[in-house]
Amino acid sequence: MTWDEVESELVKAACFAGSSSRPGLLQELRTHFAMVELAIGAVGRLWLAGSFVSGKLDPEDIDVTYLIPPDAYTRAITDPDTVDDLDNLGTRDWCVRHGMRVDAYVLRLPETEDFRALGVTGAMAPGDRKVFEDLGLYDEIWQRCRSGQKGIPDGARRGYVEVLP
Question: Which CATH number characterizes residue 39's domain?
Fold first, then answer.
């Protein structure tokens, strides 16, 4: 989705017309996104998950995973001030204290671009194995449901929305 589609489908859609939290949550996410982008220099894309991407009328927060291009990520983690900024932006309590109901995670995107070559020995960029494992972990986490709660059947799956800034 684009930012406009997120707003249209997850905030302004008729089914959310009575929501008291969605417009504010989206604004808080936009502020948070701008702060992450300013700290790192680039955000490749982001995953929105949790109740904000569900049919829940009034979600309490937004779960987001920022996927950062490898060069920007490498620069960011070598600067202690940027690491501190990202640590703050990824801490829910810090975000709430600063008026943002955002639960955020930051992951590096892989350097490997030609995915057809992944099965070829030596074709994967060094370090990308761990990157792919982390991406797969969060992909799986965001598709899980809290089974048995509020009528959610056991084994139910959910999803997340990928936003291209």
Answer: 3.30.460.10
Q: Which residue range(s) make up the domain with 146?
A: 3-163
- Which residues contact residue 135 at a Cβ distance below 8 angstroms, ignoring those fewer than 6 apart? 67, 107, 109, 110
User: Is pLDDT above 90 for 39?
Assistant: yes
**What's the chain's length in residues?**
165
- Name the DSSP class of 46: E
Measured CA to CA, the distance from residue 124 to residue 18 in angstroms comes to: 48
* Interacting residues of 103 by C-beta distance below 8 A, sequence separation 6+: 50, 61, 62, 63, 64, 92, 95
- How confident is residue 127, by pLDDT bands cut at 50, 70 and 90? confident
Residues contacting 29, CB < 8 A, separation 6+: 48, 62, 64, 100, 102
Please give the order of strands across the beta sheet that includes 62-68: 102-108, 62-68, 45-49, 161-163
Quote the number of domains for the chain. 1
pTM: 0.83
**What totals of helices (H) and strands (E) does the chain contain, helices first?**
6, 4
* pLDDT higher than threshold 90 for residue 115: no
